[in-house]
Amino acid sequence: MPAAPSIHNNLQLGLRANGTQFSLLVLINAFVGGMVGIERTVLPLLAEIDFGLASKTAILSFIVSFGIVKALANLFAGRLSDRIGRKRVLIAGWIVGLPVPVIIIFAPSWDWIVFANVVLGINQGLCWSTTVIMKIDLVGPQQRGLAMGLNEAAGYLAVSAAAFGTGYLATAYGLRPQPFIIGIIIALAGLFSSIFLVRETQGHAAVEARTHHNDAPSAAQPSFAHILLLTSWKDRALFAVSQAGMFNNLNDGMAWGLFPLYFALHGLSIGDIGILTAIYPAVWGISQLGAGALSDRVGRKPLITLGMIVQAGGIFLFILTSGFWMWALGSTLLGLGTALVYPTLLAAIGDVAHPTWRASAVGVYRLWRDGGYALGALLAGSLADALGLSWAIGAVGGLTLLSGIIVATVMYETLPGRR
C-alpha cells in the first residue's frame, strides 16, 4: 500500500512562489517597527519635560526594561515557534502590545513608562522574531539575504516614519497624547492582519529540511541547551554574529536614549531633533534593501565587518563635529553601517542553523542582540552621568569598532558556496 502523501508536498520555497504571504509579513513587520518608532523622538524628552528626570541613567531605564524583556521574549519566541507554530506566537505578541500606547498616554509617573516598555519588549520580541522566522521559512536558502533585507527595511523605515511623525505631532500639539494615538492604530492593524490574513509557515521549514545540505551542525534535533551554547560560543561564525548583534544594538540603545538629549543640549528644536532621529533609521531601512541582496553575492563576513566599522565612524562624528548638517551626516553613516550588518547577521544565522532548529537559533541570536539595548542604556547612562554625554557616546563608538575587529578575525564565511 503506498504511503500517504505529505501535507507539505504542495508547498514551494522561494520569494516568487510565496509573494503574497511574504508581502503581507513585510507589512506586518512595518507595523512592528512603528510601535518602537513612536517612542524614538518623544520619550527621552518626556522624561525631562513632563517627569523632571535629570539622571541620564534614570531616563534610559525605559530602554533597559525594554531590552531585557525583548531579549528574553526573542528566546522564547524562537523555541515556541518550533513547538506550537509561528502564527500563534505572532498573534500573542500583538495582543500583548495593544495596551502600550494607552499606558504611555495616561502614565501618571515614570514607573508607568518603564512598565509600558516591559510590555513593548514582549510585543517586539514575539512579533519581530516571528516575522523574521516566517520569511526565512518561505524563501528557502537561495534569497535569504534579500528576504532579510526586505524584512528589516520595512521595520526600520516604519521606525523612521513613526519617529518623524511623532516629532511633528509633538511640536504641533505637545508630547502627549497625540503622538501615541498612532500606536493604537498600528497595534490594531497588526493584530487583525495576523489573525485573519497570515498563514502558518512551519510546513515550509519542513520542506527545506528534507533537502538541507548544511554539514556544519548536525541535522539531528539538538537540545535547547546545546543550541544556546552553539549559537553563543561554540560555533565561531554564530559567536561572531551574536556579539556583533549585541554591540550593534548597544549603540542603537545609546542613540535612542542619548541623542535626543545631546541634540537638545546643543539648542536644537524638537522638530530638528525629530528629523535627526528619523534620518538614522530611514537610511538604515532603505539601505537594507540592497545590503541583504548584496550579501547573497559577496558573502556575509565582509558586509558585517565593514558595517560595524562604518557605524563606529558615524558615532565618532557626533562628538568630533557640531551642527545639524554634520550630525545629519553622522546619522547617515550610522544608518548605512547598521544596514550592512542587520539583514546580513540574520542571513548568516539561517546559513548555519539547520531548518529543524533554526527558529531556536534565531531566538538565541536575538537574545544577545537585544540584550545590547539594556547593556547600551546602562553603560551610556552611567558614563553620561559620570563623565558627560560626549564621553558616553565616544565609548560606545569604540566598542562598536572593537566588535568589527572581532568579526574580521574570528568569523568564517557562512554563505553556501563561499565557505
Automatic annotation (TrEMBL):
Subcellular compartments: Cell membrane
Sections of the chain in a coiled coil: none
Protein name as it appears in the record: MFS transporter
GO molecular function: transmembrane transporter activity
Organism: Chloroflexus islandicus
Tagged with keyword Glycosyltransferase: no
Cellular component, GO annotation: plasma membrane
SUPFAM superfamilies: MFS general substrate transporter
Keyword annotations: Cell membrane, Membrane, Transmembrane, Transmembrane helix, Transport
Cross-referenced InterPro entries: MFS, MFS_dom, MFS_trans_sf, MFS_Transporters, Sugar_transporter_CS
